[in-house]
Specification:
single chain; alpha+beta; 4-stranded antiparallel sheet; 3-stranded antiparallel sheet
Length: about 210
């Protein structure tokens, strides 16, 4: 028996009525996206380092990862889905990029946020003897980019620095010695003057009290 056209449309309408909520529930809602973005923003990155033989080994520490998200390191494609320490070597002075994606069934693989971890550049000059003796020299900081500074440039600037420092130290020492010598040579006079000032002050105070 053939269905009349109206009954056909009625059946299709009823079927769509029941199927549409299921389809809509399977979509990634705006509210869920906002929640996932908040979870992703709470992921924290930090780093530690260990210097061995003038070579820093960095370890990137990642925390606050939940089952709702996963992380992919952009440079290597490695996927991280739990709190993890990522060992890296020879990447000082560079930024490591981490893309955080949704792991939710209805929002699977959606990019939520991108974060960067910038690692400092290690200064190979910082461990030489000159820098150990004069750590305040401008090219002796542990973390700075000195890749374009040659040994010859370093030596020239270091010589200027030590000469200036030596002259300044000598000048300070001369001034200090001058006042020390002046005090030593005139110690008796200075002490006599101080005693006289104290005595006059006391006498003035006593006389003033007696008049009252």
């Amino acid at each position: 028996m053939k269905l009349k056209p109206i009954k056909k449309y009625l059946i299709i309408f009823v079927a769509c009525f029941f199927l549409f909520p299921l389809a809509s529930n399977a979509q990634c809602s705006y509210e869920r996206q906002a929640e996932l973005s908040k979870i992703a923003s709470n992921v924290k990155f930090s780093y530690t380092y260990d210097v061995q033989e003038d070579r820093p080994d960095f370890t990137i520490n990642i925390t606050n990862i939940t089952n709702d998200i996963y992380i992919k390191e952009q440079e290597t494609g490695n996927i991280i889905n739990k709190e993890f320490n990522v060992p890296n070597t020879d990447i000082g002075g560079k930024s490591v990029t981490y893309n955080i994606y949704s792991n939710d069934v209805n929002c699977k693989g959606e990019l939520l946020i991108t974060k960067y971890v910038t690692l400092p550049e290690y200064n190979n000059f910082s461990n030489i003897e000159d820098c150990q003796d004069y750590p305040d020299f401008k090219y002796c900081k542990k973390w700075m980019n000195t890749s374009e500074i040659t040994q010859e440039q370093f030596d020239q600037e270091f010589e200027k620095y030590t000469d200036t420092k030596f002259n300044n130290d000598n000048e300070t020492k001369i001034k200090k010695n001058f006042w020390q010598m002046y005090f030593d040579d005139n110690k008796k006079w200075i002490m006599s003057i101080v005693i006289c000032i104290i005595t006059i002050s006391l006498l003035t105070y006593v006389v003033g009290r007696m008049k009252k």
